[in-house]
């Protein structure tokens, strides 16, 4: 019985597993233009709870103040690093698509795709 209870114990907020799930929730919100309050909706809580039983959904305040801010800094650092070794081009609305708004970082050996919404 103790083993069963351990399997259903929630991850600590700072655990690597919880951080990875929170990061995916942030990606869902940002990439799909969802409201921050979506994390408090029953449907997303049930979905995440089904996929990862031991994860406890963070509230929208944490997502907004901490998780999205961290994601923004991580993306800025990634782009800054890419800019050190790559040529950068920007596109305007006339070159973007509603289906797939992408920009490209081009290096000598490969093209990196960066989604900008």
Number of E strands: 3
Q: Termini separation (Å)?
A: 48 Å
Strand order in the largest sheet? 1-2-3
Dominant shape: elongated
How much of the polypeptide forms β-strand, as a percent range? 5-15%
Q: Determine the number of helices (DSSP H or I, runs of at least 4 residues).
A: 4
- Subunit arrangement of the protein: single chain
Order of helices and strands: HHHHEEE
Question: Can you tell me about this structure?
Answer:
The protein has 117 residues and is mainly alpha-helical. The chain has two domains: 2-76, no CATH class; 86-117, no CATH class. It contains four helices and three strands, in the order ααααβββ. The N and C termini lie far apart (48 Å).
